[in-house]
Fold Polyprenyl synthetase family protein.
Amino acid sequence: MDNHDLVALSERRQHQVDGVLTAFFRESHYRAKALGTPYATLWETLERNATGGKRFRPRMVMAAYEALGGEEPERAAYVGAAFELLHTALIVHDDVIDRDFMRRGGLNVSGSYRDIATTAGIPLPVAEHRGMSVAIIAGDLALFNAYRLIDRSGVEGALRTRLHDILDEAMFVSAAGELLDVDFALRQRPPSVDEVVEMERLKTAGYSFEGPLRAGAVLALASAEAEEALAGFGRNIGIAYQIVDDLLGVFGDERDTGKTTVGDLREGKSTVLFAHAVGTPEWAEVSDWFGSPELSVEQAQRIREVLEAAGSRRFAEALARDFANRAWESLTSEALPDAVREEFRPVVASVLGRVR
């Protein structure tokens, strides 16, 4: 399959998922209007926050489903949209936890309702509380309706129950990972590399990769061996992807990533990069700056230099490559047809290509 065909395939899948989500939000807007303008506005805000992403999780569902011989992509589109709505719920709630008011370069749900309140003359602390309160409501709506989208896929009986179980497990382990992440910020002892990897496996890899791939395999009625091989691929490529994402959050080009390279440093985010660095003698020079909301651009650059000198950047890059290689090994399973390897080879290449 050449690049033109790959682009066309990706666009077709995204169009199908977008169609499901558009219809879902159209119906929700209609229902919400009967309960008043404020509730209708909330649904409009939630839809804006569910728009503009890469639709990565639905793409994993549909890619697994079709590569394993599935012939009803409209069903896979509903299941993929369910994982996208789960993603929306988790990032809306994650922003509340992190007290963030921006997402993807614009106002998130919290930020939108904070600004509505401040425009009305409400003091900032109260306005921020209002924004986060509404975001919790919005995240709850997205989370519940993720399950409803699976119901609307047309899948019935034991297969529908199995898909519910996969979505439930994705949410269940993600909550465990989020709790670990929150606890890291409260502990006096910094987390180890292994602890950070486990947190990222639970918080991100489970619902972004493993769950969607497993769902696509189950929907395609693949063998248990094929499902487990794809799940193993998802776990490992998900960890590799997150390690690379954290690297780009510090060393990336903001024009390419669309995110600041100072934010993670000011937040004191728990990543493999910093878990390795804190065990090196070089880190003592900049340890007091890490996690400071007032961190200057010059101080951030010095932290990057220390991360280079301590070997932490090289360590994280090597670990990302190791997990990407483990992911590819999972794809070599005899339970998987060549179509699966062809489908996901670019995913592995993309992760490896983002390292350096």
